[in-house]
Amino acid sequence: MAHEVLNVGQVRIHSGSVSREDAMREAADILESAGAVTSAYFDAMQQREVTVSTYMGNELAIPHGTNETKDAILDSALSFVRYDGGVDWGGEPVSFVVGIAGKGDEHLEILSQIALIFSDDDEVARLKEANTPEELYSLLSSVNER
């Protein structure tokens, strides 16, 4: 059984708003604290954002590194932060910032789990209503079932 890519310590809720860069920094810091990436991963996320926006629709952004920066990834993991004040993601409104690091091709499977959750409007509504990181985590725990 693969290890869990998300634990409750990697889930946060903020009442306010931050810049896109600060949101990416927090996503990278959580992944680094989890031992999944090196400190170079934040720069990799910024490089990706320059070439293509990681805004996915439905108030979701999934910042991640580039293929050229795979060596900054040590293990597969996710960070999940909800910003109740929203984040301006290149002109798009974002409430959920999911940092992702995938070892090898694992990120594809993790991304499909996230996509499943966010393709369901009722699920997104539940994510918005959760009051604690623990509640959010329980709604997201399916990402560990891969």
Please give a handful of descriptors for the protein shown.
Mannitol-specific EII, Chain A, 5-stranded mixed sheet
CATH topology: Mannitol-specific EII, Chain A
Helical content stands at 25-40%
Nearest-angstrom radius of gyration?
A: 14 Å
Number of contiguous helices? 5
Quickly give the structural class.
alpha/beta
CATH class: Alpha Beta
Helix and strand element order = EHHEEEEHHH
- SS elements, strand count: 5
Can you identify the CATH superfamily?
Mannitol-specific EII, Chain A
Report the span from N to C terminus. Answer: 9 Å
Explain this structure to me?
With 146 residues, this protein is of the alpha/beta class. It has a single domain (8-134), classed as Mannitol-specific EII, Chain A. It contains five helices and five strands; from the N terminus they run βααββββααα. It has helices at 20-33, 41-51, 106-118, 121-129, 133-140; strands spanning 11-14, 55-57, 60-61, 77-89, 92-101. A five-stranded mixed β-sheet has the order 1-4-5-3-2. Strand 2 and strand 3 (60-61) form a beta hairpin. The termini are close together. The model has no long low-confidence stretch (mean pLDDT 92).
